[in-house]
Structures are given as structure tokens and as C-alpha cells.
Amino acid sequence: MNTRTAVISAVAALAVAGALFWAFRPEPVTVDMAEARLGPMQGTVAAEGVTRVREPYLVTAPISGTALRSPVDVGDAVERGKTVVAVIRPAEPALLDARARAQAEAAVAEAEAAVQVAQANLARAGTDLDHAESQLVRNRELAARGTIPQRLLEDSLQAVDLRIATLEAARSELSMHQATLARARAQLVGPEGRLANGDIDACCAEIVAPQSGTVLSVVNESARLVQAGEHLLTIGDLADLEIEVDLLSPDAVGLAPGARALIERWGGPYPLEARVRRVDPRGFTRVSALGIEEQRVRVLLDFDAPPGERPGLGDAFRVFARIVVWEEPEVLQVPVSALFRHGEGWAVFRIDNGTATLREVEIGRRTQTEAGIVAGLAPGDLVVAYPGERVGEGTRVVARVEQ
User: By CB distance 3.0 to 4.6 Å, which of 45, 58, 109, 353 could disulfide with 251?
Assistant: First the structure.
């Protein structure tokens, strides 16, 4: 074999070896890549909340009676001390059953008889007084002539005073029995008598708005019987809204009054600024949709944005609140999905020249999507965003191309 033939054979062998290497070389794994970057980072707690008027006014019935149909509707503007928001008139008398009516009629007959007796007593007292006064006149004339002793004159004077007192007692007794008769007759008044009495209909209690604002709710627009203290309607100022959010108790521990919040999903084109006003010192138990008992804490927030920047937002509207617990201006961070456990710590797959290299990292604070890197990476490093079983030390990778 000459030299030329040997060279040709060697070149052919190398070509075959190269072809076999490329033929059986593993294909690179397609992965999503993420860059370790410096930027602001903040930790938040998020939950659904409900708007509410800060100081609603509940209008209640001051007396028992019949509330007429509501003169205002939900959404009406009212003015303090001027707008009539409810009208209450005395209730209709109740219908009497047979027994109650018989008892009431008997009471009327008894009261009429007592009045007749009192009238007779009054007439007798008047007659006795006339007799005593005429007797006094005669005794004065006789006493002046010395015919009768002074003692008899004094007895006549005493008799007149006694008859006057008896007459006054008879008059009072008559008035008392007449009042009893009127009360007994009133027991017989039914709804038909109530409707026939225009003076009673005119006696209505008008309730005016205790505060200027908007009618938020009307318990019942129709006329109905109400008891004293019964809720009729609610008035509130829609310009003075607050937000109520229920947080899990571990999430509420890190909050403090004044914490910044963003109100999202309220229906407007951009989030609204708000501040935490109060974190309730006592929690409560609520059963979640999965049937799990959760300890929650009520948090109240105030809008920073003026009413003009939240048009249409009213009472009991659902919103989404994102409350800032902590924030840092510049942190090296990677997606949380790029981290995985390695021993007792954390690690990522850093991409060096198309090859995945395992790198142990030390992490700081985390959010739901990002993790702060304290050591192990540098700004600009590329990492595998979602490492799976096909990615390991030395695995060749290629970036996924979005279609």
C-alpha cells in the first residue's frame, strides 16, 4: 500500500467516525430560559375585598305604625334635614272576634250605667247644696234677731261647705265615668271607624334624612306595619368609601397601618392606590370552599385616590387588593420555577455555551413568582426556567422558540 492509499483510507475512516458521532449524538433538550436580572422586588399579600361606605346611616322607625310606600328609591340623593325619606301613620285598629266584641259591648253598657249613676249623684248633690244654702240664709236672719244660738249658725255654715265638697266630688266622679265610657267605646272601633276618621289619618310622622348622601338600600318599598326601631333604609356618602379585606392570620401578622396597597380588578383602566388603616386585633373563623376552617383577620384600607378617579365605584363592590408587605429597590432575582432542592440547599441549572451546569445558590426573600439570589449567580446569567427530568449536569440545551 503506497502513501496515497494510506491517506485516503485514513480520511475515509475519519469521515465514517464523524458521521457515526453526529448520527448517535444526543439531540439538545429544548428548554425555557430565564435571565438573572437586577430590579425592584416586593412581597405582597393579595385577597378579594369589598368596598363599603365608611359611615352608613340606618334610618329606623321612631314609632310603631303603618309605614307608607317609600317616597325615595335606591340611588336617590337626599339632603340632611330636608328630604322626607319615610312616612309613618298610626296603625289600623285590629278586628274584634265575637268574644272580644261581646266583652267590649258589655264594658260600654257598664260604663253607661256608671255615668247615669254619677249624673244622679251630681243632681242630688246639687239639690242638697241648694237646701243647705237656703237654710243658712234663714239661720243668719234668726241669729241676727237672737232667736237661735250662734252654734246653729256655725252648723249651717259647715253644712254648706260639706255640700259644696260633695258636689265637686260628684262632678269628678261623673267625669271619670264619662272617660271610662269613652275608653270602652274606643275598644269597639274597627278598621271601618279608623278609615272614617280623617283627623287620625292626618296624624302622620314624617322622617327626614339624618345625613346628606345617597340612598343605599330600602328594606321594603311597599306600605306595611312596622315596629318602633325597625330598620327602614340606609343612607351613605359614596365619596367616603373604604375597603374591607379578609386575610389569613399569618398574612396579616406582617401588616401595619400605613402599608401601601394596590386596588385592582375594580372595573377601571388602572389600579388605585390605597393605605392600610387598621388591622383588627381579633380574628374569626371562616370555612373555605373546600370545607377547611380558616382563621382570618379583617383589614380596612382607605383610598388614596380622590373620588373623581374611581367613577362608578359604589358600596359593596368587589375589588382585588394587593397589599405590600416589604419592598427592596434592587435585587438579583430569577423565577421561582428555576429553583430546585439540592441537598439541604437550593440550586439552578446555569446555561454555559449551550450546556446546563448545576450551580448551588443562596436565596433571600421570595414572592409567588420571583426569588432573590444572594450568592451563586451574576446579573445576566441564563438559567433553565423549568428544569425537568431530561435536564441534568452537562445536558445540551437549546432555547424554545415561541411559535
Answer: 45
CA distance 364 to 311: 41
Cβ pair 245, 321 in contact under 8 A: yes
Of 96-100, 297-301, 323-327, the one with minimum mean pLDDT is 96-100
Contact 274, 303 (CB under 8 A): yes
Query: Would you place residue 192 in the very low, low, confident or very high pLDDT band (cuts 50, 70, 90)?
Result: low
CATH 2.40.50.100 applies to domain 65-92+198-236: yes
- Find out whether 243 and 274 touch, Cβ atoms under 8 Å: yes
Q: Is 229 helix (H, G, I), strand (E, B) or coil?
A: coil
d(CA 286, CA 247): 11
- The answer to whether 261 and 324 are in contact (CB under 8 A) is yes
Contacts of 378 (CB under 8 A, 6+ apart): 36, 332
Instruction: Tell me which residue of 63, 90, 72, 51 sits closest to 233, measured CA to CA.
Output: 72
Contact criterion met (CB below 8 Å) for 314 and 238: yes
Alpha-carbon gap, residue 254 to 326, rounded angstroms: 9
Note the pLDDT tens digit of each residue in 116-170: 999 999 999 889 888 888 888 888 887 777 777 878 878 888 888 898 999 899 8
Q: Which amino acid does the sequence have at 331?
A: V
Return the CATH fold of 25-40+330-399: 2.40.420
Q: Is 330 exposed, middle or buried (0-12, 13-18, 19+ CB in 10 A)?
A: exposed
Is the CB of residue 379 less than 8 Å from the CB of residue 348? no
The dihedrals phi and psi of 142, each to the nearest 5 degrees, come to -70, -40
The DSSP result for 2-35, as a single string, is: -HHHHHHHHHHHHHHHHHHHHHHSPPPEEE-EEE
Tell me how far apart the alpha carbons of residues 364 and 371 are, in angstroms, rounded to a whole number. Answer: 7
DSSP-assigned states of every residue in 142-171: HHHHTSS-HHHHHHHHHHHHHHHHHHHHHH
The domains of the chain are located at: 25-40+330-399, 44-53+238-327, 65-92+198-236, 98-189
